[in-house]
Amino acid sequence: MIRRDGWVVNIKRLRRIYREANLQVRKRVRRRVALGRGNPAPAVGAMNERWSLDFVHDTLSSGRRIRALTIVDDFTHESLAIEVDTSLTGERVTRVLNMLGEIRGVPKTLVMDNGTELTSLVMLRWAADRRVRLHHIAPGKPTQNAFIESFNGKFRDECLNEHSFESLGEAREIIEVWRLDYNANRPHSSLGNRTPEEFVRDLINSLPSPLLVG
Which end of the chain is less congested by CB atoms within 10 angstroms, N or C? Predict the structure, then answer.
């Protein structure tokens, strides 16, 4: 462009001035995200290998709509979190995942549908930064997320349909009580008729003890 304007310049000098003036456009490092589609692998073999998540809708007694983000570990069948609010954005989803990550680490794979919150840039960045594989089920195929669909059915039949929530605070309190009861007192035949908490406790106790350092 300078030469087109009639200037005679030394290209090496020009490049040096260009660098010193910080005029270069920074190269952006593209985050790479591992993505999957369709049916996930049918079986998992370890805790935190795969989590499933989904949204469930309900209403307060006033008619105001609320949403619940449900997250389940497919191996232990634990209900890891049920986040309840009138609106749940992709940023809110990653905040819940970060909270769980601080407690128990992040999963290798997340299985979910194609909702805007779950395909947002903030979700893609979160997964890329933590090397979590995002597996999106095929549109209109909820059976491809069978673990969370089964959980959501119990959640609706045993909690949401049994209560009329007067406020958001009451909904959060009742739902959290139900979630804790689900983990502590609900045996699963696939877990050897143990509750999720019992299964995790037995799993941890079966691990080799760390070496004692004298």
Answer: C
H/E element, 12: helix 11-20
- pLDDT tens for 155-200 read 999 999 999 999 999 999 999 999 999 999 999 999 999 999 999 9
Cβ distance 152 to 181 under 8 Å?
no
Say how many CA atoms lie within 13 Å of 154 toward its Cβ.
16
Of 96, 87, 93, the residue nearest 112 (C-alpha): 93
Sheet containing 65-73, strands listed edge to edge, beginning at the edge strand earlier in sequence: 35-37, 133-136, 109-112, 50-59, 65-73, 79-85
The pLDDT score that the predictor gives to residue 213 is: 42
Parallel, antiparallel, or unpaired for β 50-59 and 65-73?
A: antiparallel
Question: What angle, 0 to 180 degrees and rounded to 10, lies between the N-to-C axes of helices 90-104 and 121-130?
Answer: 20
Cα end-to-end distance, the chain, whole Å: 71
The DSSP letter of residue 8 is: -
How many Å apart are CA 53 and CA 34, to the nearest integer?
17
**Cα 25 to Cα 31: distance, rounded to the nearest angstrom:** 18
Q: Which residues pair with 75 in a beta bridge?
A: none
Gap between the Cα atoms of 110 and 136, Å rounded: 8
| Cα–Cα distance for residue pair 20/115, rounded to 1 Å | 46
What residues contact residue 119 under an 8 Å CB cut-off, 6+ apart? 136
What's the rounded Cα separation, in Å, for the pair 13 and 46?
60
pLDDT at 22: 78
